[in-house]
Prior knowledge:
Elements: E1 3-6, H1 20-35, E2 40-45, E3 52-63, H2 65-72, E4 81-91, H3 100-116, E5 123-127, H4 131-139, E6 143-144, E7 151-155, H5 156-163
Parallel strand pairs: 4-5
Antiparallel strand pairs: 1-2, 2-3, 3-4, 5-7, 6-7
Amino acid sequence: MIRIEKLAGQDRSRFDCGVAELNTWLTTQASQQQRKDNAVTFVALHPDDGRVVGYYSSLNYRLDLEEAASAFGVGVRRFPVPAILLARLAVCRSAQGQRIGEQLLVHAMLNATEVAARVGVELVVVHAISDSAVEFYERYGFTRFIDVDRSLFITLRAIRKILA
């Protein structure tokens, strides 16, 4: 069973998910952004050797009125929507197909419910990197924005039902 923990100096040098942008984020930017309190990254560790086999990063987010209209429809919302942005989620190629992405997503959803219990949060938003990523998120209840390609959201209410 993998272990998921907050990024804190684990060896990320062998991580390769096949997407250079996601690899670079983990190896060169995640720690720096975490130290600046801009984003928090959690890593999935292989049970045998402790190597990083997946990660996700999240941060505070807010849908402005235009984004809210794109998510919910024009005129439905009249104020910004507090949210959490699931900014990155990736699994090492050597561990793909083992449901690690699902475990990371569930972990992120649990964290979102904990944050929402203390601070107003209505949604988790993701800007998917590919069409296959869109399909992944849709399998877990995310809904596409009406007119923003590859942007999806899920309400905290829906997350609580999924986790119940």
